Known about the structure:
The protein has three domains: 8-195, 2-Layer Sandwich (Heat Shock Protein 90), CATH 3.30.565; 220-335, Ribosomal Protein S5, domain 2 (2-Layer Sandwich); 439-642, formyl-coa transferase, domain 3 (2-Layer Sandwich), CATH 3.30.1540. The protein has 25 helices and 24 strands. Mean pLDDT is 79; it is low at 355-441.
Amino acid sequence: MSIRLLSETIINQIAAGEVIERPASVVKELVENAIDAGASRIEIVTAGGGKNLIRVTDNGGGIAADELALAVSRHCTSKLTDDVHDIRALGFRGEALPSIGSVARLSIKSRTQDADSGFEVVVKGGYLEGPRPTAINRGTIVEVSDLFFATPARLKFMKTDRAETTAITEVVKRIAISFPQIRFSLAGPDRNTLELPATCTQGETVTDTAMLERISQVLGTEFSENALSLDSEREGVRLTGFAAIPSFNRANSLHQFAYINGRPVRDKQVFGALRGAYSDVIARDRHPVGVLFLQLDPAYVDVNVHPAKADVRFRDPGLVRGLIVGTIRHALAQSGIRPATSGAEAMLKAFQAQGFETPQNTYSSTTTPQRHWQASSGYRSEAPRSEWSPATAHPAQRPLHFDSNALNNPAQSGLQAGFGEALQAGITQFIAPSADSRAAETDAPAELLRAPLGAARAQIHANYIVAQTEDSLVIVDQHAAHERLVYEALKTALETKPMAAQMLLIPEIIDLPEEDAERVTAHAPTLERFGLSVERFGPGAVAVRETPAMLGEMNVQQLIRDLADEIAEHDTANGLKDMLNHVAATMACHGSVRSGRRLKGEEMNALLRQMEATPGSGTCNHGRPTYIELKLSDIERLFGRR
Ligand code: ADP
Ligand code: MG
């Protein structure tokens, strides 16, 4: 076959193959065009997952009648002059409309701000009709129907309507985050309506509050409650946005958003840096949540890497990575101690799911709870509803097994004066066995109550510290908290002063495969900084003379074997820091002997104070919260007092 120039239609279809991958890509291109046109309202309607219909209506500048035909011609754009390195608009390739026109039926109706009437062009299968006059308000309506009718092969690759509908929603949300001054609405027979009212006016500088409000519209208010604000600049690159505290993490990366000069991107380097910032506070299979805005001279970033403009190339990738990692880590460290509100939310839900609802909800409105509950005799059999019986009742309505007998037999239980004090004393005995913790309860000084984690009240199930602040109840997972504290101390030991060591009465000799013995002794100087003193003890053995004081008593044999494994796995020239972090984590894990150990009042309070003073201690090494806080107002809600 001889060589010849492809027809315009074929060229456009080839371009469409890259630019218009699925209905969501059409939505992305059309919404970007509306934003570039200066619109303050953008309405999107879809049907059949966008395959049947996509309509985008905007109130932007519009297209003049004599330019309508150009708009749908290849390589025609109003957004680029001569410099492909100075890109300030979202579009610049002049490819989207002709590509869409080559694979679907495309209609554009538009009326510029000063025109008396509007005009329409229609493109179908690459053929242009119009322009002809049409009735339309100022702005532009672009309608795309029968997507991919001209390219049946592509049509076959489409996912279900539902999947395409969801993808469109994601695209709109992603782009809406960086334009809070624009009102977006997304509706159609195939979906629930999404309305995102503008959170500031056009032309105004976008404040942090306006930004966070838009983000909350998209991600829910929970995000803003758990987000730290970011703002820093390095060598002309500015980073703003929000990063969630580590315990507010997700199972996938859908809640990560990045923008470069306002353009949504899915750049691997940027997302890699976001992950990197959380690497030692979140488990490997969990994903941080964050919204990052990078602002830099357009000349320092190439957005023309891919037709869909999702990837970019930075002139100095190291600078950008350092900025993101440094800023987020700093913000996390500054934030001090703070649990995810989702912990308290989950706790409230758990209580409610078990039937611990407010009396108003549990009982019918004509009866009062007091009528059924009598302190002296437990539940009476004359239940308000005929179907009610202690066995079938909601847990909240069921008599508590623990005290029903005692209450029914006051003489036996010694409850002569009602169930107030005596029962209280019984409970106190249950949960606060040591004299010390009882002392903590009676006279907690006011300043302890004012501390973020409050005054320790009791330890339950040998692992949970219950503490009280001025306006909340705090429950600390002492094992997780201790593990985190040890880990942080080990990391500090690497950078500043070595950790205190504790001499073993008799050195512990550990038999190891020769390579492991070799590896461990090779890192002896580092381990020494951690307070672990190891030396060679003949072939295939090492001797441990000192262990980190902070770890207390532990299984030294197991620790050394685990360390040998960690070193073997991570000991590469460039991964020293990585390896040390793993070694620290392994040691922290072994050191958490406090789980299952009863703590005295002052020990508990000391742990709480240490947590408050340690950055990052709100999350364990695996990204789980180390404590949860329930506000008094929430407790009151549970009891129907509010
Ligand atoms: P690009 O956006 O890369 O310039 P497009 O093919 O998406 O290329 O659009 C071509 C041109 O059509 C744009 O440069 C712009 O001038 C015009 N245009 C497209 N959509 C709109 C709109 N909604 N409002 C005003 N002008 C538009
Ligand atoms: Mg465009």
